[in-house]
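Case study B.
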Amino acid sequence: MFPFQIEKIYLDEKAEKDSVSKTILKALSDIPVETVQDKRGLIKQFFSMPDSIGVGKRHLLITHFYGRRLKPCPGTSNHICCGYYVINAITNCPMDCSYCVLQGYLNNPFLTLYTNWDDLLQEIDVFLSSDRQSFLRLGTGELSDSLALESIFPFSPFLIQFFAERHNGILELKTKSANVNHLLHLNHRGKTVVSWSLNPPKMIEEEETRTAPLKERIDAARGCQEKGYPLGFHFDPIIYHEGWERGYQETILQLFKQIDPKRVVWISLGGFRYPPKLKAIAEERFPKTRVFLGELFPGRDAKFRYLKEIRVEMYQKMAGWLKEINPDLFIYLCMESKEVWEKVFGWAPENSRHLNQMFEKRVRKFVK
Amino acid sequence: MSGMAEMKPIQKMPLNQIDLMDDTFSVNYLPNLQSLRSSIKEIGLIQPVLLRKKSGGYQIVCGFRRVSAMKELGKSEIEVRVFEEKEMDAFQLFSLSLHENLTTRGFNAVEKAIALEKLIHRFQIHPDKVIKTFLPLFSLEPNEKILNTYLSLAQMEDEIKTYVLKEEVSRSNIRRLTGLTPEDRMAILSLISPLKLGENRLREALTLLEEISRRNQCTVREIVQRPEIQTILSQKELTPSQKTERVKKVLMDLRYPKMRQLEENFEKKRKDLNLPSNISLRHQPFFEGKGLKVEFQFETMEEYRSILLSLSQLVAKEEFREMIVLSKGQRT
Ligand code: SF4
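Model:
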């Protein structure tokens, strides 16, 4: 059963004949469908609705995407970034995290599924072929959750098989769901990292609406581990709150009761951060959220971050707890300055390129 | 005037037959009768008021301000048109009165709130209809959030309503007030009234108060009553803007305690260095990024030499070394 509430499906006439569209409509056969010609007009109309973001999450738009769908992760200026590429197969997410940056970012409120998969696979193919020397990391979890919509839009199995045959690319599926059963039988050849964003149960309950509970995420990760998938974990956003130390430490312990650290290809740490316009939008939608009550200040890239002292404390402690589990874990900071890296680890990548090379080295150890 | 009302003959009505206490159709709030009185004095009443017959007298459908002004001017009768008791239902008459008022004078924010509250609670109109039909009538966007803001305003204390009107408080700031208890609102009023805050400053103050109260799990009233705030408010020699600055500093310190500690440490060390006033030492904004900034000002070679000497002496000072550490956002 599809676990999210969809009120209506808008089917762009250009996507009408696609077999993927038919699969989606079949899976959601009890939901009303309207064929649309004027996609832009529809988007405009939805944007003018109160809580267009919430409403958009309950309305599917099935359409084609015509621009570039593979883009470097936007990263942030003056910070070290990891050189990741974002695959745009879906925009928006049926889950509803209070801190989700997509709330202020997307120019289309719909849960949008792009059915021209062939174009996308071709684009990825051309991209990977153009740089055979590097080992590139690509992922679908930036503009949506990678696995939340799989029961109606099973794109990940295609991608997994596609990447299994490539020599210089690795796919990351990043999720807060536990939706992995359909991936377990696939021959991934170690070219797909399935990764989970993790937070303590209290944060999940208070700030991550409609996501899977921690236990289910960890159980799903163990399922993937048993099938040989390399795993990734993202403690991002780390939310500084009363009792945060206990919350995160217990989460780490709970995780590694089930997960073999040797199967973990990377772990990221990222303190909660947000672009200036997110606060008003999120507080309007989640009046009870406490994420903005921290001591957050604008940085040189205009994004608000915790006071450096707080970030360093959080990262040092988190890295310490993780290294206690296994000193060989590959831990990196997401969108942080060199200075913070130095304070946390005692060293820092020279630049984003250097970090990227370290990733390459790490990834090669895991690829069959 | 609506067609229905226009068809009624104009007649003279003794003022003592009109029940001024019956506010079924009134949305008046702090009406300014001064200009109306002068106008009546000058050229008399132009529009007859609308009444509805009820047992023992008449209720005003439209023209509360005019009836009050005439009474204050010592008149004994007024020109009216009269609806019979059962001729139109109360909601139709209220709606007529709203339209009538809109064409002649418009409504202030509190009057809009009262009107919306009456539509929902007294006349039992479904909120969806109120949103669709009446919010646009008051030039408000038709959505539930706006309706709820105004319904809350209608329930607020008179002192708050008066402040909202007097200071022309924006809708977003009204909404910030709606989430508070009456005690907290009154406490806020005691803080903001003497400060004479503009729109942005008010938003800033309300946001800080709300966030401190949620962070520290205390009431807004407890924050406002803190001695450091009350002391500022009671200092007669301070201007409102000086008070505002100082109160803001207190609130910022409460809201951002770790930042305050860093600032205080930095400031203490800076003072300990005893630098001449033409040299300033600053950290990066929010202690983000590295390094200290030194700024100095001079007019003569002599001054320049003395500045260089002071600067070179800094190297030997422990406080200076500690300030460099602090400037990186670290504790010493
Ligand atoms: S799961 Fe990710 S994409 Fe979905 S709402 Fe949460 S933060 Fe946003």
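Strands of chain B lie at 11-14, 18-19, 49-54, 57-62, 77-83, 279-283, 292-296. The remaining cases will be described in the next quarterly update.
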